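step: validate -> pass
step: tokenize input -> pass
step: predict -> running
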Amino acid sequence: MNPHHPHHPSTDDAQPLLRPTSIGELRLPNRVVMAPLTRARATNPERVPTELHAAYYGQRAAAGLIVGEGVWVGEQAIGFGGVPGLHTERQVAAWRQVTGLVHALGGRIVAQLWHTGAVSHPDHLGGALPAGPSAVNPQETVHTPYGRQGTVTPRAMTGADIERTIEAYAAAAGNARRAGFDGVEIAANGIYLLAQFLNRRLNRRTDRYGADPTRLPLDVVDAVSAAWSARRVGVRLSPYWTAADRPPSAPPCGAYPYTADARTLADHDALVAELGRHRIGYLHLRGRAPGAGGRAHAAWFAEFARYRRLFDGPLIANHGFDRAGGNAIIEAGIADAVSFGRPFIANPDLVSRFALGHEMAASDRATHYGGGERGYVDYPVWAGAETGSETWPGPGRG
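step: predict -> pass
step: emit ->
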């Protein structure tokens, strides 16, 4: 347990998830965090969020904190359709409508800054090759305007490319502030640019960004923090990412480059310890799925506790939590808050469902990525029934 964040059991009867806390400079009324969810509704040519985005986030404003969907930091970052950006004036103005509504409803929202790096495709970049740490194909599947396609071998980023990328993150962070967000989260998780630099199978550089895989994420943290207090900056990591985390649609591959091993974990350890010294607002940690590899519940929590010892700051735990698991990891003093992704899709009133012990509605997977209102803003709050079961059968069924 982190000695700087001792656990003091509450004297009230509130579930741990429902107790207030502070995350960096943000005071949260509860510890139910909405995880970033790509929903691909910004289908206009300028990738501008719309009134649908405002309604969607407004419906979920009871979350202790909303981490908004990943947003592009620049044109070179793009690697998925329908995702909004935060690098033009029109995008900034449109996001201001979203954040204004969330704030009017009492919520807090941060922007997640996203760059796909090598996991993009020429079809997203006007025919140009995507750029990554080295000229190594990440062996992923990309959704392009012409359907699913395999990734190509990217070009290795030059020093000038890296400088421009850091500047793009800094500019997007400044735009987030002008757009009314309460802070920013840097996406260094999954299979995307900053995670690529942390992956020695993909990062074969011989310069300082290869000698120290943590350097680019830390340079981005410093650049982003210049636009905010560092206590308004979070970082999301997924050190345990493996081939099991690939989407079912991905083609089979041999030596999958994104595989958690001792070297990957050591590099993440070094980064997490350094993030603590940078005094960022929080660490948003995606762990392995509960029960992965037949592990017991205690082993799942122990992996989060390991990072709690390394990081001197608030920790948000993520991946596979339900209400019971979220309450347990907070009560144990391992996490300060827990983020929920998929449960928030069909349950805009997730906080009240947790508070009242109501069952969760199921989401329609066919509408997770793309579409309009259906499966996005049409999930109602719990209405009850004599049987105590859900009255909402789910979108498209009844």
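step: describe -> Residues 1-11, 386-398 have pLDDT under 50 and may be disordered.
step: cleanup -> pass
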